[in-house]
Structure formats: structure tokens, C-alpha cells
Amino acid sequence: MTERLYGLGMRDATLGYGRGGPVIEDLSLTIPSRRFTALLGPNGCGKSTILHGLAGLHTPQCGEVVLDGKSIRALGTKALARRVGLLAQTASAPDGLTVGELVRQGRYPHRPVFGAWSGADEDAVESALRRTSMTGYRDRPVDSLSGGQRQRAWIAMTLAQQSDILLLDEPTTYLDLAHQIDVLGLMRRLVDQEGATVVAVLHDLVQAARYADHLVLIRGGRIVAQGAPISVLTPENVKAVFGVDVVILSDPDSAAPICLPRCNGAATSNPQA
Amino acid sequence: MIRVFLVLLALLAVFFVLALALGDQRLPFSVVLGALLGAGETPGHVQTIVTGLRLPRATLAILVGAALGVAGAICQAVLRNPLAEPGLLGINAGAALAAMMIIVQAGTVPESLLPLATFAGAVTMIAVIFGFAWRGGTTSLRIILIGVGLSAMAGAGASFIATFGEIALVQRAMVWLAGSLQDSRWIKVQTLLIWASPVFLMIWMAARELDLIALGDTVARGRGQQVDLQRVLMMLACAVLAGASVAAAGPIAFVGLAAPHMARALAGRRHVALIPAAALIGALIVLVADLAARRAMPPLQLPVGVVTALLGAPFFGYLLWKKRYD
């Protein structure tokens, strides 16, 4: 790797937890700036680990995570959080915490140690609530909301952080179809209108192909294929990653590829085996 | 919100005056006020009762309660566990072991060292727990489990010493272990104030660190918080607050657990309001409990720790019952 890496990426990174051995090994990955990237792969393939690594939550055992050509280790944790925001999977708020109080937490990296709450902080919170249609729920306890509203509250917190790079771990899981479309539409707008870089772990291949610009297919901690949906979502790649036989159709609206499992398709149920 | 604080302050003031007026010798309000202001016509023995005995005791009750309330609020935020309290981190067990060694083996060590030794015991215990729990970082659960384990060991150590100790001395140690404000002196008030007030101020100013860490490690790290560093600093603050209060009055049960819960019900979840509310409620609990402890069976004085549990538990239950549909 001699070329400089702009935006966010990994260089030969090995990441793992304790004694379990590495989850991903020698992985190099470049996240395209100002694009919506979807990470796809079976459960346990290392998608979340990659996301946490990119957010600086795990320090790689070897290799490095790079932001604009420099190792993120050179950045302080707050400075990194101003550039990269992570919405982890299944975060739960303490009982009684209100939406407004939760969203405020997104301002943490912008405030000096003993600094007061500023007008810019308030504006960022208002804007995050508005963009997620949560303004009316500001004083409601998070635990009193429906799953979709709760997820939007957490997304609002991540937006209040105003990082130009957003990493989202399964933002649509447990949401009904309308809320899934809401969340994905919001991600799309952040990329198109505000120039954000979004990386999301998704499970629905159809939605990923429709909303994301760039797909990364992962299996067993390795990248199997990456690129535009139309070039990545081939029956061969899907078979290699998920072990499922599919036929690829074309979306009549957008010409995005649609993966449809074949009847009697799942010949090998466990691709890891 | 302001109303909550005004009511708490008013209640505290009322019980403070009551604590000065009530006792074996009941004093009218005007006499108490006269003694406080140092009016010339106050008889000498009344002056002694008010400013020499009851005033330091009431003041110490307020400070001990406030320190325990804040220490509990820190514990519950940092360990993200509604059952967390300073005792869970071995503060009481560490202090108890130290106290047993000093009191029961009296003669070898001067008893004036008791506060210092118990403070050291409490802080050492937390340090040891952190040492065992550290594995390139810590988790709340590991701290709690190791805390419970080491507390049991320290408790066993204290019981072991008690078994071989002289009966009268062991009994004295047991009274100390229940927590008592009987031996309140100005020097204790000063010491507690010196240790606790800077820590209290720091914690209050850093209240937002507690807000964030209470959301969980992953969320906090994603916002750029140095979670392990904050956890060590906060637990250290908790150890100093609780350790200093144990050194002053022995381990007073229940306040560290209940005061933050009551504060949360009244002042909400944001620590900038929760911390002072927990301090006020903790102060109120200990002040009222000590008044009850002194007046329940005169001339016998119960240990205040016995009363905090007796008074606090029903109120705590009422609070949970009232909020059961929330």
C-alpha cells in the first residue's frame, strides 16, 4: 500500500477480542468519502468488529485505522469523535432518560471539560431532532417509545455529534418496513444533501442495493467483493458469501439489482463450514 | 426543579433546628438561636449543649449523609447498576476490617488512628478491587463481582478477629460497625469537609461525564469519552467521599443506595441536578435518622445506621410502589 488513503479506512488491520483469536486479519478497506457504503455478510463475519475498529473502539493488534492519511491513534478520542460517529447495535437507555437528554450526549466531543452548554450545542440538538422527526418527543422517556421511535432517538444523538462520517450498526434491524425506509432515506439525504459519509451494516440485500452507493461483501473476516451494487450483487458473489442460490432481477424503478433466493435455493446452509 | 431544591433545603433547615432543640434537655427555639448567635445571657451549660454537642453532631450528620448520597449516585452511574452503592465496592468491608483491627486489638495501636485507618481501609479496598478487575480495561460487571467477592473475604477477616477478641471490645466494634454519630466532634467535621468538598465540586462540574458513562461503554466510547480513565477517576472520587464519611461515623447503611434513587425520582436523570439532590436527600436522611436514634429510647442512643435502614426502607418501598406504572 503505497498510495495515500483519504477519508476513512483500514490498512492491514488485525482485530480481535481477548483470547478468541482475531476476528478479522490483515484487512485493508477504503471507505469512499461522501458515499453511502453498506457492509453485508452473514452473522459473525466481522461486520460489527470492522465498524467498531473504524470508530476507534478497538485498537488493531496489527495494522492501523487511517483517517485522511493519518493513523487515528494520533487523534485524541474527542477529536476522533468529532469526525466519526458510531451508532452501536442494541444500545439501551437507562429508565426514565428523555429523548432530549439522550440527544444532548451527542455533543460530548464538542464540549471542553468544564465548558458550558452553548448555542451551537442547542442548535445541533434541535436540528438532529428535526431531521429525525423527533422534535415532538423531546421530553418523552426513551423507554416509553416504540422501537422505531427509539431507534430514531439514537440516530438523532449520533446526528447531534455532527461528525462528517457516520457508522451505523444494523440501524434498520427490529424496525417495521416504513421505519426502515425512513432511516435509509435519512441516510441517503445525509449523503446527498449534506455531503456526509455513511457506513451501515445492513441485512436486506434489496434495500442495500437500492440505497447504498457502495457495497462491501464480507465473509469470515475477509472482503469477498466490493463496488457498485450492480457489479457486486452477482449470483456467484451472493452464493460465496451467504451460501444461498439467488437470481438477480432488476428494479423497474431504479434498475438496482434485486436478489431473490431461488426455490430449493439454500443448498449449503452454512457457508462457514 | 427549583421548587424541589427549595423544599429539600427548607426541610433540612427545619430538622437542623429540631436537632439542636430536641434532646434529653429540650430547649426552646429562642434559646437555641441565642446560643448559636453567642448571645450573652445564654447559660454556660446550654451553650455547651447547643454548640459543643448538638451542633457538631447535626453538622456531621448532614455532611456524612451528603457524602454518602453523592458517592451512591456516582456508583450507580459508573457501574450502571441500580443496586450499586459504595458498600458494593468493599468500602464498608475494608473499613470494618481496619476498625476491627484497631478497636479489638486496642492497646497496640492508639484509637485516635481509627478514622485514618478506616479511611485507608476503604480506599485500599477499592484500589485492590480495581487491581483485580483491570485487564487492559474494566467492565462494570467485573468490578461488581470482584467487589462482592473481596468484601466477603474482608468481612470474614473482621469476623475472625472478632471471634478471638475480648467481648467488651468486640461489642464496641459492633456498635461502630452499625454507624454512629455519638462521637461527633468539630475536628471530624473539619476533616470530612476538607476531604469531601473539593471532590464534591469536581464531580458536580464533571456531571456530564456521569451522564454519558451511564449510557454504556460502547455509546460513551463512540462519543469520544475515555471510559476507563473516567471510571477510575469517578471510583476514586467515590472512595474518597464514602471513605471519609465512614471514617467520621462508621458505615451507615442504606443512604448510598436509597438517596440517589429518591433524587432521581425528584430531580431527574441529569447529574448536574441529580448530584446536589442526592447530597441534600442523603443529608436529610441521616439528620432525621440521627434525631430518631437519639430520641427513640432515651437515654439509650441507637446507632444511626440502624435507624437509616428502618426509616429509609419503607419510604423506599413507597417510592417504588408509587412509580410502579411508570
Automatic annotation (TrEMBL), chain A:
SUPFAM superfamilies on file: P-loop containing nucleoside triphosphate hydrolases
Domain ABC transporter, first and last residues per copy: 8-245
InterPro entries referenced in this protein's UniProt entry, alphabetically: AAA+_ATPase, ABC_transporter-like_ATP-bd, ABC_transporter-like_CS, P-loop_NTPase, Siderophore_ABC-ATPase
GO biological process, one term: iron ion transport
Any one Gene Ontology molecular-function term assigned to this protein's record: ATP binding
Source organism per UniProt: Roseovarius pacificus
Keywords: ATP-binding, Cell membrane, Ion transport, Iron, Iron transport, Membrane, Nucleotide-binding, Transport
Major localization class: membrane
Protein name (record): Iron complex transport system ATP-binding protein
Location of this chain's protein in the cell: Cell membrane
Family affiliation: Belongs to the ABC transporter superfamily.
Mode of membrane association: Peripheral membrane protein
Database matches in SMART domains: AAA
A Pfam cross-reference name: ABC_tran
GO cellular component, one term: plasma membrane
Automatic annotation (TrEMBL), chain B:
Species of provenance: Roseovarius pacificus
Keywords: Cell membrane, Membrane, Transmembrane, Transmembrane helix, Transport
Lineage: Bacteria, Pseudomonadati, Pseudomonadota, Alphaproteobacteria, Rhodobacterales
GO CC terms of this entry: plasma membrane
SUPFAM superfamilies per the UniProt record, alphabetical: ABC transporter involved in vitamin B12 uptake, BtuC (SSF81345)
Protein name listed in UniProt: Iron complex transport system permease protein
Family: Belongs to the binding-protein-dependent transport system permease family. FecCD subfamily.
Major subcellular site: membrane
Alphabetical list of CDD domains matching this protein: TM_ABC_iron-siderophores_like (cd06550)
